[in-house]
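EI: anyone free to look at a 311-residue chain?
SC: sure, send it
EI:
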Amino acid sequence: PGVCHSDLHQVHNDWGIAAYPLVPGHEIIGIVEKVGSEVKELKVGMRVGVGPQTGSCESCHQCDRGEQQMCAKKVKSYNTKTGDKDQPYTYGGFSKRMRTSAKWAFPIPEGIPPNVAGPLLCAGITTWTPFVYNKVKKGDKVGILGFGGLGHMAVQFAAKMGCETYVITRSPDKKKEAEKFGAKGFIISTDAKAMAAHGRSFDFLLSTISGGGVKWESFFALLKPDSTLCTVGLPPEMTFRPNLLVCNRLSLTGCYLASHSEVVNMLNFCAKHKVFPQTEELEMNAENANKALDRIEKNAVRYRMVLINKQ
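SC: here you go
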């Protein structure tokens, strides 16, 4: 499985929703060992991926309109109550095996190598959906705020969609890698002159920032009137003066996971255009799982950590 920063948040109970014993992991690649008698779409031996969501009620308004990720009763790959006294909560991809709804086990297209497939189920869908939902189109000037595990995926999607893609970050040492992934431009967010040179010119900004102390007004100043800043990062707070938001009729929005159909679309796009994460790999065992979480906590990974099960 891939190892995500949200796994670390859950292990530490940073969001106050963790339940123990907790088995994290929601970027899961595996081989189907068994299927139920009613399962038609999966066969034993198929390579599949499982992301953060493994089910929904299939009967509410959100499910009926095809937005299963908004279902109030959605099942997550770990930390969802099961009603089973022997396993009271779902366990994630750090386990040797897991059981999931067949609908949410996605066949991995042949063009996607198994060692990079896992992060697509979280980092991939998290950064794919904002472009779809906000109707970003070819030729749009797009800025990616932050260039890490999410940001390096977002840059690839925007570039392959034909957007004029910029990385906006505090880290000047990432310029060459940003260009390698398809960025046309690179802006240091703390350089007031460089930021001012791009004022009121962007059609869309996607924020992957999860840290605090951000001067959001400086990013609003980059947007054309009637354009959008979408955040998929989860900073501890967002505080700003709303003047630019109001006067330029800007939209501030968020995006969460993806519907079932968009996961399929994202995987097919990645296979066709070779949009893959840059990964660091460790053999899957308890010691390395903790080592991976520690490296993520120290912000020492470029850009996604993957545990490889060699059994």
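EI: The longest strand covers residues 223-231.
SC: 👍
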